[in-house]
Amino acid sequence: MEAGSDPSEEQLLQRPWLPVSISGCQLLVKSCFSDTAYRILLTDMHCVWEERMEAAAIQSRAQELNRRLRASVEAFFSHLCEVVQPCLSGGELTGGKAQIFLTRQDNGNINVRLKSELAELPFYWEFRCSPAPVALACAQLVRPLLVISRMLQQQVKQLGGLLVRKDAEIQDYRENGATLSRERLQTEVFEESTYREHFMATTLPFLWSESLDSLGFDADLQQLYTTAIAHRKRKLSEERSVQEEQPAAESSADVVSARSEAANIRKQNHNKQDETTDVKTTNRPTMPKSDMSIPAERKSSKAKKKKVGLFR
């Protein structure tokens, strides 16, 4: 599941598959119950079935199957969780009178019927499960099992390398005179190819001889599943954090770039204005200098009148 997917699928993915037996049928089950909703997955390794119910649908089905009972959806759902959750968790049904049955439908669906008592009246419930989409089956079962398989392969490889180093250490002790105090503790040198061939020859026939209904999803495998999914959740959370940080950094860089570009444009415009001013000044026609001394010369060019008196 990736970011943005259905939250209920992510919650369901966190829960490991649990082996249960209903009406003699060996199943792997995982379920997710909230306040007034649930989601359930079942598989017999031939098909995967699912059902998802919300509050309104639970209320409607409860009234359909229990016409004599009148209660709120919270009361119905609380009783359903109390009775069926232990069974879907690999345990036993609570209450001596609680019973659970599984029936297969001709259309490929399966019904898991529950009978118990609520307020001293019979209480009935049906999980009406239909085949799950292939994408859901892959996300909830196939991919996690492939991850677990790779984890086990790496573990086997590391253990093989450890045995080789241990053999080298023991050989060094022997060459320096060390001896075993008890002969029964002596072991053969580990050879990976020989061990693999012997393992395949002895273990595979034993596994195939077991009943095919034995799914073998034991506590160790459940713990391995939980660990693998928890690591995946942390990795996705880290990737989302990085993705959220990148747009912010890019936005900051864009702002700096935009400001720098704006400053360059202003500088270019300013330079253009200076160049335009210089051009105008250069092209302006030169005006002849006015002779500021002309008026003075004109004054001095006037003949001075002599004073004439009565006597010469």
Automatic annotation (TrEMBL):
GO terms for cellular component: DNA ligase IV complex. Signal peptide: none annotated. Gene3D superfamilies: DNA double-strand break repair and VJ recombination XRCC4, N-terminal (2.170.210.10), Helix hairpin bin (1.10.287.450). Residues 138-181 form the XLF-like coiled-coil region domain. The keyword DNA damage applies. It is found in: Nucleus. Residues 237-312 are annotated as: Disordered. Pfam families: XLF, XLF_CC. One of its GO terms (biological process) is double-strand break repair via nonhomologous end joining. Residues 301-312 have a biased composition (Basic residues). Transmembrane segments: none annotated. CDD domains: HD_XLF_N (cd22285). It comes from the Eukaryota. The keyword Nucleus applies. Belongs to the XRCC4-XLF family. XLF subfamily. PANTHER family: NON-HOMOLOGOUS END-JOINING FACTOR 1. This is Non-homologous end-joining factor 1. It comes from Austrofundulus limnaeus. The lineage of its organism: Eukaryota, Metazoa, Chordata, Craniata, Vertebrata. The gene is nhej1.
